[in-house]
Amino acid sequence: MKFLKKSILFGSIFLSHNLNSWGKSAISESDTLRLSLNDVWHRADEYSRDIKIRKTAVSVSSEEIKDAKAERLPEWNVAGSLEKATNIPIYENGIFHTPVQHEVIHTLYKAGTDFYLNIYNGNKLNLKIKEGKMLNVIATIRKDQTISDTRYKAAALYLDLQKSIIFRDLMIHDIADQEKQLMEIKELHKNGVVLKSDVLRVEMELSRRKMTLVEIRNDILIANQKLNILIGEPDDRIVHPVDVFNPFHNVVQTYEGYLGDAMHHSFPFQISEKQTELSQINLSKVKANVRPKIGMYGEFYFANPQIFLYPYNPYWYSLGIAGVKASFPLSSLYHNVHKVRAAKLELEKEEEIHKDTEDKVRQQVLEAFLRYKEALLQIDVAKVNLEHAVENERIIKNTYFNQTSLVTDLLDANVQELQSRFELAAAQIMAQNKFFLLQNVTGIL
Questions:
Q1: What does each C-alpha distance from 216 to 178, 211, 256, 350 come to in angstroms?
Q2: Domains (ranges, CATH) in the chain?
């Protein structure tokens, strides 16, 4: 039974060692790319497919504005025709008798041009241009929102990668300390001071930590790939964060200050505001249906033969016509009633959505602000806990080697000290993450 336990223990250590070595080799296969967070943001702005899609949408809306403005120019057409005509049969004695063929001019030519210039159409064209400009503004805001969201996502991945690297370095240093401690305990066992079970427990704990190190290295590779996909680098390119963040150096405003920024820069709030204005434009467009339409038109053509006036003759002639046309859609007086009501209800709906969006923005800003302050407080708590854990480990280690405490107490103290270092690093990274989230929510990232 003892031999079986030893085999399992040594097997797990051997497996951990092999996985650990694989993690190292995987990292060393590629050149390391050292990037600051600003570098990551710049690469993400250039490569992100979501941002490219939004930029294209802005370009599309810009072209639609130009297209709407081009409708102010007259509609101009050019046409021509070549026709062949047969003789005209005249049935003098009825349709059941042979007709008399009346000779006509058989070949007809015509070439000309016509135009129509819109003078007034209920102001619909100006409203269409205004609508296009509003849609362009909304598309621009959505593009900026996508850039901000992408930057926050990149920052989160960057910080996650940085946290895993810190964890890896802490674990490597701790494993080295634990191996030294194991050697000391083995010496005590040789001298008959401690039991074999103490050695086995320390070896098991060391094996667990080596496996944890393999998991951390895998976390690094996974976070690295996610970041590479976002910034357009090959999957196996190793990125090493170079920025060292200090959350306490961040500019911290009051909640009212962040809320004021959000009311001016929050992307959902701006989009909701523009959607409300868009509904107002749509209401004006619907009301314009009951207004007259006035336009100038003209036509000029050459034709052969001359069949405009009698008697006809096989000669070329030209004719030009110009005038002003006005119309009023009487049916819109009753067809447009429900359309106007629907447009008014749509405007009321958008106004309520805008108020709801304002409520949500206030809630998001408050939550992000409080979570950031909470993360800063967690750093202070983690620092105090680390000091206590380090002192506790020192005391327990001295008492264990003086034979006044158990190996379980020593292992617990080791774990608490390592856990406290992890918690401090995690708290510092989380505080920076919450700060970027707060900036993203307020629209200033």
A1: 18, 9, 40, 49
A2: 30-75+143-293+327-442 (1.20.1600.10)
